[in-house]
Structures are given as structure tokens and as C-alpha cells.
Design a protein that fits this description.
The chain is mainly α. Helices cover 68% and strands 0% of the residues. The structure holds zinc ion (ZN).
């Protein structure tokens, strides 16, 4: 079984990375909103707001949307379940791609 706390942390960290990278391009906008809160989750939310204002690249915005969906699935208790066939997603796949919501078979099928 995956460790939900660890998965959540990994997802938040990845999201933070993406937002920081997006924020670097528009550092002036990020700074203008004042110092970041100490709490990391709050920081991520604040950075996300800044980054949305700054205009994320499409691929970055898409990955962040996937991460948000995965975080919601963690809250709902159906994280790690394929959203197509309902089967559990392979742990190795989740380890490599924590925001994945398709099992390997459905993902391959979707690419065909
Ligand atoms: Zn599936």
C-alpha cells in the first residue's frame, strides 16, 4: 500500500517545484504579493495564485491540474485506483508517476 502522507507530500512538493519554476520567470509578480506563509501547504496555494496570475505554460498548468486531481482523490480515499476500470494502479507506476489516475493497461489503451 502507498503511504498517503508521503504521497501527499510528494505531490505538494512537485507542485511547489512547478510553481517556483513558473514563478521564477515572473519573480516580480510573486514578490509583489508579500512574504510567503510559513505553512508549506499555504505557501503552495499562495504560489499557485501568483503563478496563475503570471500565466503558467500549458504543460505546467496541465501537470498542476493532474496533481490537484490526485490530491482530491487522496481526500476522497480513492487514490491509487484507475479512474477508467477501477482496478488498483500498480505501486511502481504510482511511485514513478504519483499523479497518475490510469492503470498501465488503460493508459496504454488511451495512447493507441
Ligand atoms: Zn484501468
Amino acid at each position: 500500500m502507498h503511504n498517503e502522507k508521503l504521497v501527499r507530500q510528494r505531490l505538494l512538493e512537485r507542485k511547489g517545484e512547478l510553481l517556483v519554476r513558473a514563478g521564477e520567470v515572473h519573480a516580480d509578480i510573486t514578490r509583489a504579493s508579500g512574504p510567503l506563509d510559513k505553512d508549506f501547504a499555504e505557501q503552495v496555494v499562495q504560489m499557485e495564485n501568483d503563478a496563475v496570475l503570471a500565466g503558467l505554460s500549458e504543460s505546467t498548468a496541465a501537470e498542476i491540474a493532474m496533481i490537484n486531481k490526485a490530491l482530491r482523490r487522496l481526500d476522497d480515499g480513492n487514490y491509487g485506483q484507475c479512474s477508467v476500470c477501477g482496478q488498483p494502479i500498480d505501486e511502481r507506476r504510482l511511485a514513478a508517476l504519483p499523479h497518475s489516475d490510469h492503470c498501465i493497461r488503460c493508459a496504454e489503451y488511451a495512447q493507441r
